[in-house]
């Protein structure tokens, strides 16, 4: 049977949640994440983990997808600047959380998933960005619906998400959340507005 990343509710969902929690607990405690260690902490037979995920790389990817990959609600302040400021502030706080930070670092260090892996098994790194990309696209779509000029989602990832994650991963000191996010947002919103100005005048 081909394994999948998610399954419907019931016992399988509870087991998956327990396994994800076990991974996060081990990472936060600074302990090695191995299939036997995760199985012991989650109270699951190691054979079940090997059958479901195959190896630690895929297990980390699945945990990252579960933790970061949900789209969730996005801010609705009435402006693109306000939405990005609110969302970016939450992103900074999330990246500073011990469990999230440990998972991000583990995702970066994890070996790439075998290209021949079953569909749905993404690399741990890409899994960390799935939900962020979805949220960014939702924010930009809402701004466009209000008639605002918007940057591309790639620019938001490059100028807002990437710097936040980079600083968190390397433990770099940062200015206050408000200052950091405002600077990043100005680089995103101001250029988009400036590019729209000539066409508006024309």
UniProtKB/TrEMBL annotation:
<dbReference type="Pfam" id="PF16859">
    <property type="entry name" value="TetR_C_11"/>
</dbReference>
<feature type="domain" description="Tetracyclin repressor-like C-terminal">
    <location>
        <begin position="74"/>
        <end position="182"/>
    </location>
</feature>
<keyword id="KW-0804">Transcription</keyword>
<dbReference type="InterPro" id="IPR036271">
    <property type="entry name" value="Tet_transcr_reg_TetR-rel_C_sf"/>
</dbReference>
<dbReference type="InterPro" id="IPR009057">
    <property type="entry name" value="Homeodomain-like_sf"/>
</dbReference>
<keyword id="KW-0805">Transcription regulation</keyword>
<protein>
    <submittedName>
        <fullName>TetR family transcriptional regulator</fullName>
    </submittedName>
</protein>
<dbReference type="InterPro" id="IPR011075">
    <property type="entry name" value="TetR_C"/>
</dbReference>
């Amino acid at each position: 049977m081909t394994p999948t990343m998610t399954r419907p509710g019931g016992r399988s969902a509870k087991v998956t949640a327990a396994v994800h929690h076990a991974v996060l607990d081990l990472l936060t405690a600074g302990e090695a994440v191995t299939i036997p260690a995760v199985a012991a902490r989650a109270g699951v037979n190691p054979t079940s983990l090997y059958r479901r995920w195959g190896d630690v790389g895929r297990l980390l990817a699945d945990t990252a997808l579960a933790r970061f990959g949900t789209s969730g609600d996005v801010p609705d302040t009435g402006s693109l600047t306000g939405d990005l400021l609110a969302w970016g502030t939450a992103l900074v706080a999330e990246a500073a959380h011990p469990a999230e930070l440990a998972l991000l670092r583990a995702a970066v260090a994890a070996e790439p998933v075998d290209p021949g892996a079953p569909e749905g098994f993404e690399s741990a790194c890409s899994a960390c960005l799935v939900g962020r990309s979805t949220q960014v696209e939702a924010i930009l779509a809402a701004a466009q619906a209000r008639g605002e000029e918007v940057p591309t989602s790639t620019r938001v990832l490059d100028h807002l998400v990437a710097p936040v994650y980079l600083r968190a991963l390397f433990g770099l000191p940062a200015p206050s959340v408000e200052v950091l996010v405002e600077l990043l947002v100005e680089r995103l919103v101001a250029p988009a507005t400036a590019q729209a100005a000539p066409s508006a005048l024309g």
